[in-house]
UniProtKB/TrEMBL annotation:
One of its GO terms (cellular component) is cytosol. The lineage of its organism: Bacteria, Pseudomonadati, Pseudomonadota, Alphaproteobacteria, Rhodobacterales. This is Cyn operon transcriptional activator. Belongs to the LysR transcriptional regulatory family. The keyword Nucleotidyltransferase does not apply. It comes from the Bacteria. It holds the Pfam family HTH_1. Residues 3-60 form the HTH lysR-type domain.
Length: 302
């Protein structure tokens, strides 16, 4: 048995109009098409639904008993269609994203504000984490998309490029021996005490700048996140490299941002999603807005 929605619609239309002719007008079909749909439905159920007479068609006892069920089925189907339409038009939905804390502070408010202005009915949940933790949240399914610096992929997660972000050297504002607006020399960089707040990026720094690819140097220290690193640099004789958009915190922590030359001067930022999972309309729309509104050079002079 395979009942169709067309059969149920014809059944309810005939029941309402008590006439095949009236149902045909309501459904914009011919009378013969409506009659055929009812005959098919009765054959599938192996029971009569209408008593036909010269003055119309009236429900049998069984037809009367199933009429509320048929109405609920069509109502549920309509609700599904309405829900899908709402999601496609972003009249509802849930945007779940993971993002490093500093990127969330410096960049996210502007793009999220534009998204919320256009789609105020979409629920938004933001998970802040260290850059190394973005892929883990995506892989566990805690969020639908993650945005952050390039990291090794965890199982079940794929990535695509968002932006190339300039990296700069963060030093104390009291470090007068460093020249403003000029990249420090390699010799100067190797003499500095470094703060490592990202395992992956620290490895790149040690490999390309500091000449010690095997392990961190004993004079360097490691902290959990960039905010803590900037706070320490403002008080102590340490440096680190960070995305240039973080310079909005320079005055807060008493630090300066200097140009950084060489392989570590730019960082690829990616978006991360679960493999073989289609993005929801909310996530896909936000991701497109985010890709076109990245932390580019025009944002760095604020």
């Amino acid at each position: 048995m395979s009942l169709s929605l067309r059969q149920l619609r014809a059944f309810l239309a005939v029941a309402d109009a008590q006439s095949f002719t009236g149902a045909a007008d309501q459904l914009n079909l011919t009378q013969s098409a409506v009659s055929m749909l009812i005959r098919q439905l009765e054959a599938d159920l192996n029971i009569a639904l209408f008593v036909r007479s010269g003055r119309g068609a009236h429900l049998t006892e069984f037809g009367t008993s199933i009429r509320p069920t048929a109405m609920r089925v069509l109502s549920d189907v309509q609700n599904i269609n309405d829900a899908a339409a709402d999601l496609r038009s972003l009249q509802r939905g849930h945007l779940r994203i993971a993002i490093p804390q500093v990127l969330g502070c410096c960049w996210l408010p502007s793009v999220l504000g534009a998204f919320r202005q256009q789609y105020p009915d979409v629920e938004v949940s933001i998970s802040e984490t260290a850059g190394d933790g973005v892929t883990d949240l995506v892989g566990r399914g805690d969020v639908e998309i993650g945005i952050g610096p390039e990291r090794p992929l965890v199982n079940g997660v794929v990535a695509d490029k968002m932006w190339d972000v300039p990296m700069q050297l963060i030093v104390s504002r009291h470090a007068s021996h460093l020249r403003d607006n000029k990249p420090p020399t390699l010799r100067e960089l190797q003499k500095m005490y470094w703060i490592n707040y990202s395992d992956d990026f620290s490895e790149l720094l040690h490999r390309t700048l500091l000449g010690n690819p095997g392990s961190p140097r004993t004079q360097d220290i490691r902290v959990l996140g960039l905010m803590s690193a900037m706070a320490i640099i403002g008080q102590e004789n340490y440096v680190t490299a960070a995305p240039a958009y973080a310079n909005i915190f320079a005055g807060v922590f008493g630090v300066r941002f200097l140009p950084l030359a060489g392989p570590a001067s730019k960082r690829r930022f990616l978006h991360y999603v679960r493999d073989k999972h289609d993005l929801s309309p909310a996530a896909a729309t936000f991701l497109e807005m985010a890709r076109n509104s990245g932390p580019v050079e025009s944002m760095l002079d604020r």
